[in-house]
Design a protein that fits this description.
Layout (H helix, E strand, L loop, with lengths): L13 H10 L3 E3 H12 L3 H4 L10 H15 L3 E3 L4 E4 L1 H5 L5 H15 L26 H11 L3 H14 L3 E5 L10 E7 L3 E10 L4 E2 L1 H11 L5 E6 L2 E2 L1 H7 L7 E4 L1 H11 L13 H5 L2
Parallel strand pairs: 6-8, 7-9, 8-10
Antiparallel strand pairs: 1-3, 2-3, 4-5, 5-6
Length: about 290
């Protein structure tokens, strides 16, 4: 059984993540970047299944979040509020990067900001102590929200999905989960540009683990001849085979929303998520009085 010690460190995935950004055309969502990086690294399923502590993130996802943060600190990557990461002008001009140099540069930045009387303890195993802001995608409120979602009753989670889809522009959204309709939890219509309509069936599952390819196949079987598209929403994750099955050529397309993307959608729509303003305390200012 593989453990977190078998997972590549954040700095040992920098070159591959940088190459993934190039392969993606210079920009991508977190999911796209992670998948492409994993593909380049050729990581085994056993490694990809190692979880980070008691969170819903895998150890690979957790470390890749730090990889992006380091590359952002040195001006190679940037990200938008919509969660899309892209190469900066500097990043596009580079043909290769040196992870050791990047780590050194970031830590020198941190040292310059620290007061002389503060001891800095830098450990690869505990990146949070590097003095770098925790990557937004692994901040604690996200894990708390995932826990809230997982502990909703099945009915409440279906109602939340219905509200989410309506807020996202879907029409005639109905929940049918109680009918035992072959795993179908609901249906709706999405209209593109106000002209073209697609009938969609959805399934929503409160998982902490990983949705398998067989579950996607079962869902597609229940959809057969009844809808143009499918949507599978989970608080957990989708295995790589599940993602491949959802996008299999010649089969009815199924869109996937995992726990991370569900959190992002709720945040963007401000459904059950309230932004707050906070203040940091300038200790040096008070010491100078």
């Amino acid at each position: 059984m593989k453990t977190q010690y078998d997972v590549p460190t954040y700095n040992n995935m920098m070159n591959e993540l940088f190459q993934a950004m190039k392969d993606l055309g210079g920009s991508g969502t977190i999911r796209e970047i992670d998948e492409k990086t994993v593909e380049i690294l050729k990581l085994s399923d056993e490694i990809l299944e190692v979880m980070h502590g008691n969170t819903s993130k895998t150890e690979v996802e957790y470390r890749l979040a730090w990889t992006r943060t380091y590359l952002k600190k040195v001006g190679i990557l940037e990200n938008s509020e919509r969660g899309v990461w892209s190469l900066t002008t500097k990043g596009r001009e580079l043909h290769h990067i040196n992870p050791d140099e990047i780590v050194k540069m970031v830590r020198e930045m941190i040292l310059l900001k620290e007061t002389n009387n503060r001891e800095i303890n830098i450990q690869d195993e505990n990146l949070e102590n590097d003095g770098i802001d925790i990557p937004e995608e692994i901040q604690s409120w996200r894990e708390k929200l995932k826990n809230v979602l997982f502990n909703l009753s099945p009915d409440a989670f279906e109602r939340l999905t219905q509200r989410l889809l309506r807020e996202s522009g879907f029409m005639q959204v109905k929940v049918t989960g109680k009918t035992g309709d072959g795993g179908i939890d609901g249906m709706g219509i999405v209209k593109l540009n106000g002209i073209i309509s697609f009938h969609m069936l959805f399934q929503c599952k409160r998982y902490t683990g990983t949705v398998s390819a067989s579950e996607i196949r079962d869902f597609r079987g229940a959809m057969q001849g009844r809808a143009d598209k499918g949507l599978f929403i989970t608080t957990g994750k989708f295995s790589i085979p599940a993602i491949e099955e959802a996008n299999r050529a010649g089969a009815a397309p199924i869109d996937l929303i995992d726990g991370d993307e569900l959190v992002e959608r709720l945040k963007d729509l401000k459904l059950g998520v309230v932004p707050i303003n906070d203040y940091s305390i300038d200790d040096k200012w008070f010491m100078s009085i």
